[in-house]
Amino acid sequence: MNPMAVQCRDLHKTFGVGEDAVKVLRGVDFTVPRGEMTFLVGPSGCGKTTLLSVIAGLLNPTGGDLEVLGVPLASLRGGTAVEFRRKNLGFVFQQFNLLPALTAAENAAVPLLAAGWKRKAAVEKAESVLADLGLASRCRAMPNQLSGGQQQRVAFARALIHEPHLIVCDEPTSALDAETGHHVMELLRQAAVRPERAVLVVTHDSRIFPFADRIAHMNDGRVEKIETQSGGPTC
């Protein structure tokens, strides 16, 4: 097994053409090891979310090489790319993106339902994952009946339920207060960090930096520095 879940080499992304072209990624060299939580940080507009989207296969790079879980993403097309993401990636979004008409367990079960699981089996597994995240008593609650921290834990359950090898998180604590953000990051580390799995987090929230194994600093479309946390994360 390749110890690197993500390998970017001289990665470029440009939006637009000609005089209107905007170069967002300007030759990114970046790796994300399995078994660790990597943070991607930097000022607004430096390219963090674009890089995350390219790694997740949601945007195509303009140039360079990208391997995710040992697979060159450029080799995947159409349904093959969708299937690769469905099987191997878990997503945690800034605004949770829970479906308001579904219960917590049903929201967490969505990846399994999309993969063709029977509803009963999918919801039962979702209830088990939610219990591991401290939400056993809230499985039948609707999203509007949950606190922000509880909604984020449902989002984590949805990202974890199909046992992906790469979890990508876009500002997972930006809508949470300090105490709740600290708690949900503890839960994410406990549930998500495995030898065969990598977790990549884009964040501005310096309060959660201690949870990272390594921090990649971006500026002006490039990764300028990788900082390894001394002694590992302090949770």
Q: What do these coordinates show?
A:
- The chain has seven helices and ten strands.
- With 235 residues, the protein is of the alpha/beta class.
- The strands form two sheets. A six-stranded mixed sheet has the order 6-7-8-3-9-10. The protein has a four-stranded antiparallel sheet with strand order 2-1-4-5, with helices on one face.
- The longest helix is centred in the C-terminal third of the chain and has 15 residues, at 178-192.
- The protein is globular, with a radius of gyration of 18 Å.
- The two termini are 28 Å apart.
| Whole-number tally of structural domains | 1
Biggest sheet details: 6 strands, mixed
Mean pLDDT: 90
* Element pattern in H and E: EEEHEEHEHHHHEHEEE
Rg, rounded, reads 18 Å
Question: Under CATH, the topology is which?
Answer: Rossmann fold
Beta-strand content bin? 25-35%
Short description:
By secondary structure, the protein is of the alpha/beta class.
Keywords:
single chain; 30% helix; 235 residues; alpha/beta; Rossmann fold
Topology:
Elements: E1 4-15, E2 22-33, E3 37-41, H1 48-55, E4 63-68, E5 71-72, H2 78-88, E6 89-92, H3 104-108, H4 110-114, H5 119-132, H6 148-160, E7 166-170, H7 178-192, E8 198-202, E9 214-219, E10 222-228
Parallel strand pairs: 3-8, 3-9, 6-7, 7-8
Antiparallel strand pairs: 1-2, 1-4, 4-5, 9-10
Helix pairs in contact: 6-7
